[in-house]
Amino acid sequence: MTPANATTLRRSLRRYAFTVPWNLFLLTAGSLLVAFSIKSVAAPHGLLTGGVSGLALLGYYVFPQFDTGTWYFALNVPIMLVGLKMVSRRFVLYSLYGMAATSVLIGQIDYVLPVADPWLAVLACGVTLGAGIGVALRSMGSTGGADILAVICRERLGIPIGRFEFLFNLLVFAVGFVTLKLEIVLYSVAMNFLVGWVTDACLSMFSERRMALVISTHPEAIVQAVLHRLGRGATLLEARGGWSGEPREVVLTMLNNLELKRLEELVYEIDPGAFLIMGSGFNVQGQGFSERKAY
């Protein structure tokens, strides 16, 4: 595949990532994993998840005449109404679908994961719940709940999403300490650390980008190789040698993990004495990479 064809394919895939069918697919898959983790693992073992799903489980534990799906739906309705007023309609409508799908699936699933060891339940629930949240957040929406409140607080109050989620979960677990056994709450706290790690892993799995800086005596040749042989963009930065004081140009480019080795081969093919620096550039937005999601 030529660089031009590869660039065209990347652009087509990025455009498809913003289509309605793809976003609904991600939300459905994420909702299924979230529903499974709650109904098949967390609830049978009395575990407490974070966010609104945790409040729904608390409601079910205290008032078992209403199932977890009903509690989850009822708690999300006022949040959705607030979201319609304070964030974009598109994000809320997608999240409304994710919330409804999660609620329905929680009601439909009657399978219980056959594990007796609480630590195995913690691992199973943490992995599936984190994966479900991560898959859903790769769409233009979410599965509802605290995610919408977190976006509102970030947009209106400047509170980082991670900090809000931590404070919200702190409130949920504080209520849990009052209503549940201490060991159950401690198991749940450990599980939610795993949920956060798996969620981050899902979000970065196909999105991680690498920044490369190339210091060479042949910057123009390296730029042309990046443009025409890798199909990526490049920027020339004006710099000055710290020891020699001589002016020079540094090549800056952004790549994915698969392209790093190809860049290395190109650079040292052109200039065996080049200095190559590669680092993480996870959150990359702009032409050729991720488009900005407007909430």
Principal-axes shape call = elongated
Number of strands: 4
Tell me about the largest β-sheet. Answer: 4 strands, antiparallel
Q: How would you state the average pLDDT, rounded?
A: 82
Number of domains: 2
Radius of gyration: 24 Å
Identify the strand order in the major beta sheet: 2-3-1-4
Q: Which percent bin holds the helix content?
A: 55-70%
Question: Ends: how far apart?
Answer: 36 Å
Give the structural class.
alpha+beta
Low-confidence segments, ≥5 residues, pLDDT <50?
none
List SSEs in N-to-C order. HHHHHHHHHEHEEHE
Please work out how many helical segments DSSP would assign: 11
Strand content: 5-15%
Please characterize this protein's 3D structure.
By secondary structure, the chain is an alpha+beta fold. It folds into 2 domains: 3-204, no CATH class; 209-280, Alpha-Beta Plaits, CATH 3.30.70. The protein is 63% helix and 10% strand. A 4-stranded antiparallel sheet has the order 2-3-1-4, covered by helices on one side. A hairpin with a 6-residue loop joins strand 2 and strand 3 (247-256). The longest helix is centred in the first third of the chain and has 23 residues, at 20-42. The model has no long low-confidence stretch (mean pLDDT 82).
